[in-house]
Amino acid sequence: MSQRKENLAILGLQWGDEGKGKLVDILAARYRHVVRFQGGNNAGHTVVVNGQSIALHQVPSGALHASCFLTVGSGVVLNLEVFNQELARLQDRGFDLSDRLLISEKAHLILPHHIALDKWREGATNKSIKIGTTGRGIGPAYEMKAARMGVRMGDLRHPELLADRIRQGYEEVRLRLGAEVGDLPSLEAIVEGLIQTAAPLLRYIGDAQGNLMSAWEKGESILFEGAQATLLDIDHGTYPFVTSSNCSLGGLFTGTGLPPKALKHVVGVAKAYTTRVGAGPFPSELLDETGEKIRQVGREFGTTTGRPRRCGWFDAPVTAHACRTNGVDGLAIMKLDVLDGLPEVGLVTGYRDANGTLTTKLPGCISEWEGLKPEVKMFKGWTTTRGITDMAQLPEEAKVYLEALTEAVEVPIAYLSTGPDRVEGFSWPGTFLAEILD
Ligand code: GDP
Ligand code: IMO
Ligand code: MG
Q1: Distance CA 338, CA 336 (A)
Q2: pLDDT in tens, 56-83
């Protein structure tokens, strides 16, 4: 298969779990490099090949392609125990990454006290807002980075300095948790554990920025894999109900050290409906039987935590905001098949505020989301789209719905997904993605 030089970013446009992993896996066959640039093991990216499913959390979703070199950029936060488990699981399934993986020496570590702090905040014994985090220590790891108390992958090359790097953050967490510190290991035990866990990974740590820069300068093709999504972005999402990284386009540049001109296209990934895990605004949420049906048919249970995902209609203002934020060139609409057989399918085109005024603008303050009532336009449902692989097979009713969706978002569709497997779906004729994939 031909390698492409048009570097491409795949970004989530809703609240995560849009199907980014599936699309990255499909495209990875055409790219030399696949790069994660933010997030950590809060992400769960599922790839399905021949009915076999693999969930990736920190390893880029190009893992299944032997021709792909995988990079974990500096914007990522890493749990090394989970990383080792992922590598072992991939190895068991026949995917050997030993000579095609590089982890940035500038990427930060997630440490046991970060996880303890995350869980404590989400627990019942304190009064902080419950975000419904994944409990993986993501927020505290990024906080420590910003507070200049983080530990980076490169620090693992100097084990004698680790205790000093970790001490301040560790003591601050102990102080904060007081008697509720539970079974948090001692500083010495954390350092000892870290040295052991890091040992098999030391060979992968290096200058990811430099390597990517020279790959770009040599014209090798690069695919960037976003984690989470724009509405979970720390700046442009539904703050404070967000994750702690920039999941939108800006995070790609800070999280790799490449300049914007290294990127050609942005594909925004959205489900044909909307889901969200955890707390926070969700104007198009369906709390009725239809929401439950979508959850069951779409298997909307978290890849990482197994939590039921909240389900609702496609929200055009939310997705349009994400498209503008990321400069999306084309939409990948996923899981259309999940809506098969519904008598009617809804599309949220705007919201009415408490005064009855219609708006498509997303509030910039959390309290202003309350009281927004979605304006839902209903469309006639269709029979089946499951597994279809070309436009001619698309039912007329589904076409009408997708046309309305793309008009409301003001971005053309570039890919349509009709099932979890790699082969279920097709690129939209005439688009840049069709050119890349065909
Ligand atoms: P990500 O976090 O964006 O990579 O998405 P997840 O992997 O967490 O969640 C998407 C889920 O939907 C996974 O279980 C995929 O296998 C599945 N999936 C992806 N595309 C489709 C599709 O078109 N139809 C159906 N039915 N499932 C899909
Ligand atoms: P992928 O990459 C869906 C959500 C959590 C919570 C909020 C903050 O698979 O799309 P965190 O643990 O990050 O501090 O939690 O963000 N969240 C996700 N939701 N998909 C994800 O990743 C998510 N990663 C974090 O549920 O609401
Ligand atoms: Mg996911």
Answers
A1: 5
A2: 999 999 999 999 999 999 999 999 999 9
Side-chain-side CA neighbours of 436 within 13 Å: the count stands at 29
- What are the tens digits of pLDDT across the range 315-348? 999 999 999 999 999 999 999 999 999 999 999 9
Q: How many angstroms from the chain centroid is the CA of residue 304?
A: 11
Say which DSSP state 414 is in: E
pLDDT exceeds 80 at position 3: no
- Domain co-membership, 89 together with 121: no
Q: Are residues 132 and 89 in the same domain?
A: no
Q: For 30-83, give the DSSP string.
A: T-SEEEE-SB-TT--EEEEETTEEEEESSS-TTTT-TT-EEEE-TTBEE-HHHH
Are residues 83 and 222 located together in one domain of the fold?
Answer: yes
Index of the ligand 1 atom closest to the CA of residue 298: 26
Residue 49: strand pairing partners? 52
Give the distance (Å) from ligand 1 centre to CA of residue 21: 7
Pick from 182, 200, 218: which residue ends a domain? 200
Same domain, 186 and 325: no
Residues 232 and 212 in one domain: yes
For residue 76, give the CATH number of its domain: 3.40.440.10
Same domain? For 378 and 313 the reply is yes
Among 8, 188, 38, which residue's Cα sits nearest to residue 106?
38
Are 253 and 106 in contact by the 8 Å Cβ rule? The answer is no
Q: Residue 216 is part of which domain span?
A: 8-104+205-265
The residue whose CA has the least distance to atom 20 of ligand 2 is 16
Q: Residue 228, CB half-sphere, CA atoms under 13 Å: how many?
A: 31
The model's pTM: 0.97
Q: Which tokens hold the place of 70?
A: 């995988």
> CA-to-CA distance for 276 and 214, rounded, in angstroms?
38
Cα separation of 159 and 306, whole Å?
A: 36
Choose which residue among 11, 335, 336 to substitute to test ligand 1 binding: the one with the highest number of ligand atoms within 8 A of its C-beta: 335
pLDDT of residue 124: 86
Identify whether 353 is a catalytic site residue: no
Please report the atom of ligand 1 found closest to the CA of residue 425: 23
What's the rounded Cα separation, in Å, for the pair 313 and 350? 12
141-174 core/surface letters (b: 16 or more CB in 10 A; e: else):
bbbbbeeebbbbbbbbeeeeebeebbeebbebbb
Concerning whether 45 is annotated as a catalytic residue, the answer is yes
Q: Has residue 2 been placed in a domain?
A: no
